[in-house]
Amino acid sequence: MHPYLFGKIPSYSVMMIIGILAAVLLFRFLCAKKRVPGKIYDYYATAAIVSIAVGLGSAFLFQAVYNLIDTGKFEFRGLTFMGGLIGGAVTFVLFGLLSKKPERKAALLPVAELAAPCIALAHAIGRIGCFLAGCCYGKPSDGGVYIPSVGAKVIPTQAVEAAFLFVLFGVLLWFTLSDKVRGFNLAAYAVGYSIFRFIIEFFRDDYRGSFIPGISPSQFQSIVLLFVGILVAALRLKRPDLFSLRTQTEADSTDKNAENQTENTVTETENGNENSHTPTENYDAPVKSPDENADKIDGENVGETDNKNSDENVD
């Protein structure tokens, strides 16, 4: 165990900062890769930063509640990931739903899809910090890892969870970059992690209190997260257009093309109406009588005869 790095710097804090930075950079890369419009990216990048700040606060708050259940004292000592996930996710969703611009609301789920692998990556790196700090440990085991603060060998549940999260991150990243599985990042993350977390809790030995007898707070939250993941998957199957940023962009482009086509049609119609009112013949000219027309024809015939005779004289 290495609870401190470079002297007195807590290893958990270092890994948490690295995880957050890695997640932010990955989010920027994925948004650029998927050609998220600049204004949409700026808005949700701000939402992500605020969500991280709120998530950290809720992580401390949830842990303080656990401390109250465990010791009877409301102390801001330590933090819990599930509390941070709840606070951060709610903040991010509110940013999308409360936006006054329709294009921002329409981009909520597609952008959240890009955030899912970022969360998994940050969480995986954070669990390495847990392993170095010696927290979130498992039950005693002869084949486990010795933790000085516990004074015994225990199951390295932190390392196991970190390994799982790296695998989950790889799967979600493949979903995102391959375009073969669109719109299932959120559902895959929620369902996959909730099931794993519910199981791994049986092997952990760091008691954090309990709301419901027989299960830990994280197991209860995992059940809720599982149902959320199932609902998101059902929504994706019923309304896949809500999860595709490309579809939203194409829809906006189609609307603009339709508007331009309508304007062109109206312009052509107006021009046609103007041309239809332009006079092409002089309808005010006097109508000649049949006798006048006959005299004109006879005159033309006489002229042709004279010309013919003159031509014959020349030859």
Task: Indicate the topology.
Blueprint: E1 4-5, E2 9-10, H1 11-33, H2 38-71, H3 81-97, H4 102-106, H5 108-133, E3 140-147, E4 152-154, H6 157-178, H7 185-200, H8 217-238, H9 245-276, H10 290-314
Antiparallel strand pairs: 1-2, 3-4
The description of the largest β-sheet is: 2 strands, antiparallel
Strand content: under 5%
Number of domains: 1
**Quaternary status:** single chain
What's the helix count?
Answer: 10
Poorly predicted ranges (pLDDT <50, ≥5 residues)? 251-255, 278-283, 301-315
Helix content: over 70%
How many β-strand runs?
4
Question: What descriptive keywords fit this protein?
Answer:
single chain; 315 residues; mainly alpha; 10 helices; 4 strands; 70% helix; globular
